[in-house]
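retry 2 of 3: previous attempt timed out while embedding EPU. Reduced batch size to 1 and resubmitted. Inputs unchanged:
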Amino acid sequence: MDKIIVKGGHRLCGNVKISGAKNAALPIIIASLLNDGWNTFHNVPQLMDIESTKLLLENLGAQVETSGHTVRVNAAGLSRHEAPYDLVRKMRASILVLGPLLARLKKTRVSLPGGCAIGARPINLHLKGLEHLGAKIGLEHGYVEAAAQELIGNEIYFDMPSVTGTENLMMAAVLAKGETVLRNAAREPEITALAQVLCMMGAKIKGAGTSIITIYGVDSLAPVTATIIPDRIEAGTFMAAAAITGGDVTLTDCRPDHVGGIIHKLKMTGADITVSGNTIHIVGPERIGSVDLKTLPYPGFPTDMQAQFMVLMSVARGLSIISETIFENRFIHVSELRRMGADITVSGNTAMVKGVPLLSGAPVMATDLRASASLILAGLAAANTTEINRVYHLDRGYEALVEKFSGLGANIRRVKN
Ligand code: EPU
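retry 2 succeeded.
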């Protein structure tokens, strides 16, 4: 297994191009299952999760072609309705085939994803929604089995906004009969991006990006060519890295309007941030100031940036309180940060972080995608060398991370263990 070695103390300077968004690319590529013909997607990040998605689609009988950052999918040969355990276990987002397969084939069998390092992550809201559209749902031998003679539009209320839940139901409802209204839907930019691509295919969707989404079912959808939006979490991670190293970094090819909550908090830490078109220029403060934060569904502060912000607060002047309200177990990075000298106390879903002047490099273990990124940030700011193990998590969701940090002047390398 590879590891990443970071020697801290280097100020990051220069330009970095933000890649396409993993969490937008996954549902959009999967939406190809809804039509017959070649769909073309540009700006697809080169990531393990994208590779897993391509395998999953091929397994279902679709043809997939890749050339650089362009992925083409043709689901005319869609022949199987099952997403097997081996593929779903590698990537929870495989659950996103549930809606499209049910819409296209009227039946599907998808392995239950189970919990993961950050929480139990149930899919009850996906299933309840599909039942409201007329599907019969059963759970057999670890698989969700869903079937419907016909999907019929209905009102669906989310007890809490779920990103992939909203995406799954949008993809099921576009080919259902009549009108579906999703209430308390998720409002993340990835939802809007998926809705835009579905509309380009011929779907009729109103309100995506708000908490009430109305979908008028159509008989069929056509193939499209679309470009994946920039990754707001990758952008946030680089902004945090610039801030923690007192750096001077310009992010290009990003969507500043998607990272408003992150920019707001970073400014409160003392970072100087200017936005112009699709670039963000950030200059880190001499020492980070402390801020409190609470993770919330979009447009609130993203849970996918909580670990990276906790690292900033670990070296901030003063005390900060961080509340994680989305996932019940998303503080596993705390014990690793403590090993680097961070002063963090956790009580329930709240962490109290007392900033220390400097972290000290140590061997640490990555536990999930965003926690891995946070350990790299900690390493960039720490004295001496930090060795991050289990970095395969990073390959799932950050394109060329080591190369991008090196390009900004970080002393970072990846080695085979
Ligand atoms: N929830 C339920 N029942 C459900 C679905 C969700 O109780 O049926 C709860 C979850 O347990 C959680 C909350 O609702 O407490 C929100 O979860 P959500 O369903 O929105 O999460 P998700 O769709 O599984 C996506 C991203 C995550 C990101 C979350 C929150 C993708 C592929 N994944 O997950 O991204 O953290 O939304 O923004 O879009 C990552 O990229 O590292 C990552 C984990």
